[in-house]
Write a structure and sequence with these properties.
Elements (H helix, E strand, L loop, with lengths): L1 H21 L6 E3 L2 E3 L8 E9 L2 E9 L10 E2 L2 E2 L4 E10 L6 E10 L11 E4 L9 E14 L2 E13 L13 H17 L28 E8 L5 E9 L19 H28 L10 H26 L8
Parallel strand pairs: 11-13
Antiparallel strand pairs: 1-2, 3-4, 4-7, 5-6, 7-8, 9-10, 10-11, 12-13
Subcellular location: Cytoplasmic vesicle membrane; Golgi apparatus membrane; Mitochondrion membrane; Preautophagosomal structure membrane
Membrane topology: Single-pass type I membrane protein; Single-pass membrane protein
Keywords: Autophagy, Cytoplasmic vesicle, Disulfide bond, Golgi apparatus, Membrane, Mitochondrion, Protein transport, Signal, Transmembrane, Transmembrane helix, Transport
Length: 334
């Protein structure tokens, strides 16, 4: 029984470290004595990126929720990434005729549906990388990217939360990729049609299809940077997210914690300092002037000695007052 108890205690002591390795609490991030709260950025957000590869249009929609799992946002029509994931990618490829489509979904960060795997969160202050940049770099792992023949490579995401006091971080995230694409195409298609038909979107038959739109939006706080294979053959999604919540001025650093103390905290501290100074000075004065010893050293020592008795008398008076209020007085009916 003793061995079993020790084993249980050892397992219990490992639970906090295991939980820290599997989860990422965006509301309580501590790094280099600074505390950050990214919970205002919670929720599922999408970012769209498109490119032309070998004459085909390849677009990928990245869906992420750094504070929680994606849930239903991890499913798009017939593509399923896994509701327990934090970041997913939805890959679509269209041939030059725009009719044939191949698509697949792949997880980038998070746990699988059985809770297996690890996100291995890594948090770094950007100032340790570049002294001119303020913010946080968060890396989340646990994903897989298919490379053909039923083979997969590990995947991860690196999100740079860059300090921008003028941005909440949600700017431009409420617009869907289709809405952004339609607005961009309509605006630029009007400009191209007003020309002589030799624009970038001319297909050779005099018909202008408009310029290719890669999904970028400079007004959006969340920006796509890259999705490439690294030296260790894993795939990494790089994003940049400008927000005020990554600023050191919004953190609660231990070095600056005194600046956040309230009025009552300062009042109590000053009160105890004044009381301690009075006792020390009074004791010194009684010792040097009257040669006092023991309780006589304390200023108003007689009063201090009488405090317990005074408290007892006060308490007895309070009890008697309540007991007396319960008894009936005056005349009673005969």
């Amino acid at each position: 029984m003793r061995i079993s108890s020790i084993s249980l205690l050892s397992a219990a002591s490992l639970l906090p470290s295991l939980a820290a390795a599997l989860t990422f609490d965006c509301a309580h991030i501590t790094k280099d004595t600074y505390k950050y709260n990214l919970s205002p950025l919670k929720g599922a957000h999408s970012i769209y990126h498109a490119e032309i590869v070998d004459g085909s249009i390849v677009n990928t929609t990245y869906v992420l929720n750094v504070c929680n799992i994606l849930g239903g946002s991890a499913t798009r029509v017939h593509l399923h990434c896994g509701t327990s994931r934090n970041i997913c990618g939805f890959h679509y490829k269209y041939d030059s005729d725009g009719q044939h489509e191949t698509s697949f979904a792949f997880p980038i960060a998070g746990l699988d549906h059985m809770g297996h795997g690890a996100k291995d969160p890594e948090v770094t202050r950007l100032k340790t990388i570049d002294a001119e940049t303020e913010g946080l770099r968060v890396k989340l792992s646990g994903g897989e990217y298919p490379v053909g023949d039923k083979k997969v490579k590990s995947a991860a995401a690196v999100v740079d939360f860059v300090c921008d006091p003028d941005r909440s971080g949600l700017e431009g995230l409420n617009d869907s990729a289709k809405r952004l694409l339609r607005a961009r195409e309509e605006a630029e298609d009007g400009d191209e049609n007003s020309g002589d038909g030799d624009g970038e979107g001319d297909d050779g038959n005099g018909e202008d299809k408009g310029p290719f739109y890669d999904g970028s939006n400079p007004d959006r706080s969340l920006q796509f940077k890259s999705f490439n294979q690294t030296d260790d053959e894993s795939y990494v999604l790089n994003l940049s997210w400008r927000t005020r919540y990554a600023c050191d001025s919004y953190s609660e650093g231990r070095e600056n914690s005194s600046g956040h103390w309230g009025f009552f905290t300062w009042f109590i501290i000053i009160f105890f300092l004044c009381a301690a100074a009075y006792l020390v000075f009074g004791s010194w004065l009684n010792y040097n002037r009257y040669g006092a010893r023991g309780w006589d050293l304390l200023p108003h020592g007689d009063t201090v000695r009488d405090v317990p008795y005074l408290f007892q008398d006060w308490l007895r008076r309070v009890v008697n007052t309540f007991q007396g209020a319960g008894s009936r007085g005056g005349y009673s009916a005969v």
